[in-house]
Amino acid sequence: MQSNCYIAAALFNGRETYFNVAIAEGLEAKGHRCLLPQRDGFEFAALHGFLAEVLPERQVPGAVQQIIYHLDLGVFLAQSDVVVALLDEPIDEGVVVEIAYARLAGLPVVGLRTDVRSPYGEFADPCGGAHFFPVLQCDCYVHAAMPNAHGPQATADLQRLVDELDVAIGGLDRGPMTRPPARFAQLIERAERLFGDLEDLHAEHSLRTLAERYLDQRDAILAAAPRKISIPPA
Predict the structure, then answer these.
(1) Residue 205: CA atoms inside 13 Å, Cβ hemisphere, count?
(2) Residue 116 DSSP SS3
(3) Are 104 and 184 in contact (CB under 8 A)?
(4) How many Å from the N-terminal Cα to the C-terminal Cα in the chain?
(5) Where are the domains of the chain?
(6) CA dist 204 to 42, 67, 211, 215, 225, Å?
(7) Can you say whether the dihedral through the CA atoms of 50, 51, 56, 59 is positive or negative?
(8) Tens digit of pLDDT for each residue in 118-134?
(9) Are 91 and 134 in contact (CB under 8 A)?
(10) In this structure, how many other beta carbons lie within 10 angstroms of the beta carbon of residue 8?
(11) CATH 3.40.50.450 fits 4-223, yes or no
(12) Which end of the chain is more exposed for a tag (fewer CB within 10 A), N or C?
């Protein structure tokens, strides 16, 4: 049975992004549809340029953060029926939030860890040395040893991992998102106003439209943001 899999993962370096794509493509070869922000989202630099045309420069970084937040949670996660969360060290804070939102919305979560580091226990422990809070939010936890001593073994290890993930996903009770809590539902509504009918987020027209829509929706988006209290030095 095909699933819409949201790949929740850190994506800040070549090692992470390479592995994320390998997992996504492996699951897609099994017939699943994967939503991977680094691939299916937009280029930050390109969006930055269009936002700079409609906003003061100092407001652009915050706008980019808000747009990423609404895309990942309000579009990609909301369109999924299962989350595959990568829990290698250091566990990404964004992934932890995405796991929590998924569980609140009734979506099952498959945790994946290949790390031999065990900062919160022993490798042989049930959580494999990972922090137990995110692990215990998972419906299924795949803890894989991947020695990758040479190229052919790395290929075989990756395929074995994808096979296990496919089995884990197939054993889940999946379905559309149940009624999300109010704060999440409001986020999804704002995301729909931002991204509705934009099919190709890499296209210049889509990015320009997104920048204009953000400008129109900025007051509502910022109203939902946390109130910042700055304490100057004594």
Answers:
(1) 4
(2) coil
(3) yes
(4) 60
(5) 4-223
(6) 10, 16, 11, 17, 28
(7) negative
(8) 999 998 899 999 999 99
(9) yes
(10) 31
(11) yes
(12) C
